[in-house]
């Protein structure tokens, strides 16, 4: 990897295009590096992972609304169109709208892969727009191998940006890294030249910067829509760039650009690592999926809570507990902990999206139930249970400098997303324990491999998809690197007619 210094420049400095971050991203996207077998295997895992969550979220309101919007926009004249999760494979919509609908379905339950560093990210959000474009452009001769290379680029660019550039520190939503990464990935997949990808990356960044209020306070359904919009806008940016349209330049470093006015300003510098020419793209292997449907920084805490449920059930009894302190990293404390200052994180009437970002709530439910379910754990009746509310409001988080250091460590052996717990009982006794990483993490107690990804799909799709359709999708997904152009349309699933009929069909303007 080579590290590039990226900062704001005045117009008078006339930063050469070759030294601009968007151009360096385009250079990575055009470098014809072979995909290593372990990287290809992980791409397949994440395609399965995304589909699992999309199947489980099919009938929820946000995916249903996004799907209804997509179905109102038939395939454009430029290709065959793309499939929409749940619909028959013969139903095709315009690629950008498929990216939108499928992106919402994937993100709705906050249950797919994650990478955390200077910024937060769900790099699996790159997959819906790339699959949509691949299906739409299959007539151009695109294959599963092309899609594979595009997804690898998307992961590489997003994770490299996340390692270097903190957006949340400046109250910018993390999907601002997704627009450029998806545009770069599409460029790789289509075999576009560096100039076209450069313009697409700039447009994608310019149109996907927004405030972080979507993940603050009373969190709404927009949390699922934000990355889907970034994917949709990335598709549109590539389309415009292919037609010869240009972007604001320099988009990152310009005098009125993103760094100057949305990030650190002229006094800040970002050190961005990117692969050197010919260097394998392996960033996807740095990311990790979720065993539980909750914000990633709660994953290890859920596993600790499940263990304490078995070994120390007295901690789940609010009559015996005076106070519980979860000492953790800065990010965890301020984003999903009491450090956020959001009273909604302790409200039994809060939205599912808010409870998903409340570590005190999540830990309480996992501790009392010994499990955490993507449906039952968020039900209003579950959140309002008196013993849960009583214990929940006795749990606070605190930042611990050592856990913050480990959170930001570049050493995989010590990087951690958990923390330590201190329970003070009403009799004055104290209990302490800790956990560093989730059980499903590559360094956890039960790391996820292909079998676990397949089982996650079977579990989440079970009861909604027919068994034959589950088997068909898994067969196609696991053959992704070898798929021919005519098989790309199979990278979806079709819900039974009864499930499709029962799902919400909200009406709107279009």
UniProtKB/TrEMBL annotation:
Residues 19-269 form the MmgE/PrpD N-terminal domain. Pfam families: MmgE_PrpD_C, MmgE_PrpD_N. Residues 292-479 form the MmgE/PrpD C-terminal domain. It comes from the Bacteria. Belongs to the PrpD family. PANTHER family: 2-METHYLCITRATE DEHYDRATASE, 2-METHYLCITRATE DEHYDRATASE-RELATED. This is MmgE/PrpD family protein. It comes from Demequina litoralis.
